[in-house]
Amino acid sequence: MKIPDGHTTQVVDTLSDRYPLLGLALRHHRTTRGQPLSFHDKPYLVELYTDSHRVDGWDAMKAVQVGWSELLVQLVLERAGWAGKIAAYVLPSYQLRDRFVKRRINPVLDRVEAYQERVPDQDPGSLKIKRFGQGSILFLGSNTVNDFIEFSADVLVVDEYDRCIQENLALARDRLRASPDPQLFRLGNPTMPKVGVAALFDHSDGRRWHHRCPRCGERQPMDWVVNVVEKGTDGRWRPRDTARIDGGSLRPVCRRCHRPFTREAKGGEWVAERPANTRRGYHVSRLDVLSQDLRPLVLEWGEAQGNATKLEAFYRSVLGLPYTPKGMSVDREILANCSTGNPMDHGGGDSYRSQTVVAGVDVGRVLHVSVSILEDNQETDTRMRRCVWVGTVSTFDQIHDLLVRYRVNVCVVDARPEVRKAQELRDKCVESGVCEVWLAQFTRADRVGRQDYGMALDWSRRVVSVDRTQLLDATLEDLRLDPPRKVYPEDVWSVPGWAEQMMAPKRRMRENSERYVWDEGNAEDHHRFSDAYERVAMDIHARSGSYLA
């Protein structure tokens, strides 16, 4: 829905009947600066204002100053004052709670007539509890455990989630259990991957705001290293919008047509990357704020290079993303440096007969596939995988069709959980001479041996055993090298979930152990493993000479 500025009374009345929170925002609310609310540069907020009163809640991983706190203030006011609910607003500490109420809540209540009408005449002016309309609002600090055992609520808002005391938040959630229509809203700036609000977002349906390129029509979320900056041959970062390097406002560059475009409200939409998950989750960055000038952000990014503290602040405050130091995972910079190949080939064909082609398949709710041709780098005396197609299919029969279409020589398939179907595919391909198919299983190799990642081949069963940690280490190195040993198509970012799944596993020290492991938490990582199995297929081809070739 598009909300134009300069609304007529009739339009506002119509919207108020259908969307009470939106109607409150347009008709009555004023910001802390005394200004009416506008969606002009934050069109992504419209869905929050139209839906928040009727959903069971959502989780938001956000950058700073993106309009979310203003939204939540109005949410608790509307729920209490107009819907007659008991709303609780939680902040990290009671000291922060006190400042918040004094600076954000009380001035708004004093300034807006519609709010004044719902404040009781004998209001004691408490910083903790406010009766409002037929309901009430509690403002709580997560560091005071007694605050969470004395009340029952219908609506619970947790702001600055990662800074709150998590043990007490569990008690706060219990306060909703008696409500017939409980609502839980959690948001904040992320701190670490798989922790706090970042973990909540990973468990959600993963909504990101997509901007429409008016030139080619591609809808895409704003990604810093895909749309805004690139690393030059001198190793320095520079804007992708080369036409505006010397002056003027910088524009993002479309990931599909590679031309600069102006961010507009028209055509923008929220897209859920994990629609099967029922809990709503939102990620929004400063790049989604249409009035945000990109040039100072590019300067800030350049100044942060080599300084982990500044980089962490940039990721959290500007991009609304958790920061992981280099060497511990695949990141967006690594993926951007590797996604420079020709666009994906969706057809295949006889031209691949003269190539050596390998494929990797990981099994999730669907089958995730990566197909690459092998090329020799004469300068480095190494082999490189040049990806020609990445995607998902639903059945093993479709996997067989892909192997035929791209004339694949060696394919490695995740042996679990579909063991029988994977075996049927292996046997069908080997008997028909279509392709050499191996089933992959993980075993622990205590030390790095002569074979990369502890690879061992059982030729009779076509089963390859590898060390999971060492395999992911090896494939990370493939992507980090300059030049990389794996190159993806330039349009691979359009594959749903590809970037997120490539970045999901993080390398960490196992608790009470000196052994490193790769941990994806609860996030999906299937594209990361289809890439890893493809690497195994390349090495099997090198060892066997591909006896089916």
Structural class: alpha/beta
How far from one another are the termini?
A: 56 Å
Taking all Cα atoms into account, the compactness measure Rg is 27 Å
Count the beta strands: 22
Strand content: 15-25%
Oligomer: single chain
Biggest sheet statistics: 10 strands, mixed
Q: Any idea what the shape is?
A: elongated
**Percentage of residues assigned to helices:** 25-40%
Structural overview:
- The protein has 17 helices and 22 strands.
- With 549 residues, it is of the alpha/beta class.
- The strands form four sheets. Strands 1, 2, 3, 4, 5, 6, 7, 8, 11 and 12 form a ten-stranded mixed beta sheet that branches.
- Strand 3 (129-132) and strand 4 (135-141) form a beta hairpin.
- Helix 1 (9-18) packs antiparallel against helix 2 (20-27), helix 10 packs antiparallel against helix 11 and helix 13 runs parallel beside helix 14 (419-432).
- 43% of the residues are buried.
List the helices and strands and how they pair.
Elements: H1 9-18, H2 20-27, H3 46-51, E1 57-62, H4 68-81, E2 86-91, H5 94-111, H6 113-116, E3 129-132, E4 135-141, E5 155-158, H7 166-174, E6 183-188, H8 197-203, E7 207-212, E8 219-221, H9 224-228, E9 229-231, E10 237-239, E11 269-272, E12 281-284, H10 294-304, H11 308-319, H12 332-338, E13 357-363, E14 367-377, E15 382-393, H13 396-405, E16 410-414, H14 419-432, E17 436-442, E18 456-458, E19 463-466, H15 468-480, E20 486-487, H16 498-503, E21 506-509, E22 516-519, H17 526-544
Parallel strand pairs: 1-6, 1-12, 2-4, 2-5, 5-6, 7-12, 13-16, 15-20, 16-17, 17-19
Antiparallel strand pairs: 3-4, 7-8, 7-11, 9-10, 13-14, 14-15, 18-19, 21-22
Helix pairs in contact: 1-2, 10-11, 13-14
